[in-house]
Amino acid sequence: MVLVAGLVTLGETTIGVGLVLPGETVLIAAAMAVPDVPAAVLVTGVVAVAAACGDSIGYAIGRRFGPRLRESRIIGRMGRDAWDDAARTLRRRGPLAVLGARFLPVVRTMTPAAAGASGLPLRRFLPAVVVGATVWSAVHVTAGFLLREAAEQFEKAFGIAGWVVLGVVVVVGVVGWRARRRRAEARRAAARETVAALAEERRDSA
């Protein structure tokens, strides 16, 4: 499980694994299987190294292909709007953007390559990556480890019936969240179409 968590974390910022299977989900699941504190520390270290390596590979890809990477198929699949957002934030915040992006799904996937393409110096990129990867890993491993202990206590108190009720609540919550997300995306798409139509009308009138 530690190996899987490391590989997913490594791939998240290089080939976009995080768009299908978020690193937080895998990491928390791996941490829930950890038997004790020393093992949790080991998982934290392995995942932090994998995250830093993945970010560094993404940065190297951005440096190699530069701004034209934006037009590639993989960036098109991930979302060019997200790429543009990452690039704008990098121009304004530099290393702080790299550090903050580690905690934001999708943006995390884009930021290392965008940092390389934008010309952010490696000496400013690497410290932010190391700090971000370490804190991100520690937070989620700790959460998973504590969740495992809480789950054991829950099972003792409520048994199988409690898990069934909890599962139903989680499913309903996920379905509601996805529905709200789809509505928000539809509203944003409609707003973009309206803006584009107004811009077209102005061009025609001019």
Provide a quick synopsis of the model.
Keywords: Cell membrane, Membrane, Transmembrane, Transmembrane helix. By secondary structure, the chain is an all-alpha fold.
Subunit arrangement of the protein: single chain
User: Which spans have pLDDT < 50 for at least 5 consecutive residues?
Assistant: none
Number of distinct helices: 8
Q: What's the total number of strands?
A: 0
Rg computed from alpha carbons, rounded to a whole number of angstroms: 20 Å
Tertiary shape: flat
Class inferred from helices and paired strands: mainly alpha
Q: Give the CA-CA distance, first to last residue.
A: 62 Å
The helix content is: over 70%
Q: Layout of helices and strands, plus pairs?
A:
Layout: H1 2-12, H2 23-32, H3 37-65, H4 73-78, H5 80-93, H6 95-101, H7 107-118, H8 122-205
Helix pairs in contact: 1-2, 1-3, 2-8, 3-7, 3-8, 5-6, 5-7, 6-8
What does this structure look like?
The chain has 8 helices and no strands. Helices cover 84% and strands 0% of the residues.
Task: Output the keywords.
single chain, 206 residues, mainly alpha, 84% helix, flat
